[in-house]
Design goal:
Elements: E1 5-10, E2 13-14, E3 17-18, H1 21-35, H2 40-53, E4 59-60, E5 63-67, E6 72-76, E7 86-90, H3 108-120, E8 125-129, E9 135-138, E10 142-147, E11 150-153, H4 164-175, E12 180-182, E13 194-199, E14 203-211, H5 223-231, E15 235-236
Parallel strand pairs: 7-8, 7-14, 11-12
Antiparallel strand pairs: 1-5, 2-3, 2-4, 3-15, 5-6, 8-9, 10-11, 10-13, 13-14
Length: 245
Amino acid sequence: MAEELLVADSWLVLDGSVRSLDRHIGRFTRSCLELGVVTPEDLERFWHETISAVPRTGAWFPRVELAGDPPSLRLRIRPAPARGDHVRVWVPDVPDHRLHPARKGPDLLALGDLRALAENHNAHEALLRTADGIVVEASSSSLLWWEDDVLCAPPEEIPALPGTTAGLVRDLATALGIRTARRARRVDELAGREVWLLNALHGIRLVTAFVGCDAVPDNGKHFTSWRERVERLRLPLDPSGPGLV
């Protein structure tokens, strides 16, 4: 039987540079401390060792974990998967069944199975929705969309993973004076909109199709400039850098 995965986090490293590492450190650290099985000192030591261990050349997608019984902190250094900038999204006819939607880790196996089903439908990701059809996020990505010149996200009261890349983009939009909003929308209400999926591996991807429904997203006018803007925000890995606990 596989060990229980309590918390996990991953990020992309390209030749020793990374985007929003402080956000990944914060998300993983908060989740670990909420469970009360490791100390802040454990986490600080672990993060320094982790950042020192990640290779400075090549493309990597390391994953940190809190797993096992008793729980322990672990690092897996993995080659980075292929990246893309466009994505087809399958719309299952069942609601989001995650047990821990706001904590990355416990539901990863089930989400991987859901992505495999999406591939069977000629899609890359699966859309997660509430029981009454409100869009939440995708199986491994956050969801943002544009309504005119307003950058929108699902309502805060819907349990979802606090996406690092989506949070970065929303903060950048605010800093640039672009309106942001939290809005409850069903997938048919995204028809004709510019829709993005966002995560640490791919950055921003443009949704080109919803598979399994009639909604057709728009090609969009914001995607290219925003993808380039986010890709430029990489910083060198530094064991003494910002974001450590």
